[in-house]
Amino acid sequence: MEANARQDLVRKAARALGRSGLAHAYGHCSARLDGDSFLVCAAMPMGLVSDEPGVVVPISGPLPEGVLGEVRVHQAIYARRADVGGICRTMPPALMALSTQGIVPAARHGIGAYFAPGPALWDDPRLLRDDGAAARVAEALGEGSAIVLRGNGVVVAGETLEQAAVLNWFLEDAARIERDVRMMGFAPESGRLNAEEAAARQVWSGGVVERMWNWLISV
């Protein structure tokens, strides 16, 4: 993908994340460029991104001037995961509320199955503004696609930035389901997908990413 197209992709993802309610004034997203660098969105509320260019960040080394401190977690994940091509750092409201109680969404419906049996939880609300914290979160993420940060949002990784944004929306939808099930008084252990059911739903064929991505960028 040429440089202009990559910039356009990052801007679209930033706007989609902000305007769909997955992020407010804070948050950021990025797309891998190659084995040594990635492009992160402008340091501003993502929903307000217009034609502001993203910034190229080295996977290893100091952050460029003006890049937000928590972008270190992008560096740490890209360094450990050659399969990751895009990352979103957001603050979805339902997921945030559950996280304050140390709760992550269980796999209860189709699009919640992608995180079965549930995303990782980082049990620390402090910002990830140093290399050590970023590295520890990346290690805790492991081979997963999302790690919920207690009282501090979530980091979502995908093969592409489009997939990461879609997974971000899926996880917040799973959080809404989790919240509603608990509000209705059902036992938290009931109504979960079993391993076979979850595996059967973890498919990407049929334009799963493309259809949700097109919807997100139209919001």
From TrEMBL:
Query: Can you name one GO molecular function term for this protein?
Result: metal ion binding
InterPro entries attached to this UniProt entry: Aldolase_class_II_sugar_metab, Aldolase_II/adducin_N, Aldolase_II/adducin_N_sf
* CC annotations in GO: cytosol
Alphabetized, the UniProt keywords read: Lyase, Metal-binding, Plasmid
User: So which domain of life are we looking at?
Assistant: Bacteria
Pfam hit, one? Aldolase_II
Keyword match Lyase: yes
**Could you tell me which SMART domains the record lists for this protein?**
Aldolase_II
Q: What Gene3D superfamilies does this protein map onto?
A: Class II aldolase/adducin N-terminal domain
The residues covered by the Class II aldolase/adducin N-terminal domain are 8-179
Is-annotated flag, keyword Metal-binding? yes
Entry's Gene Ontology BP terms: pentose catabolic process
Q: Mind telling me what this protein is named?
A: Aldolase
Species for this entry: Novosphingobium resinovorum
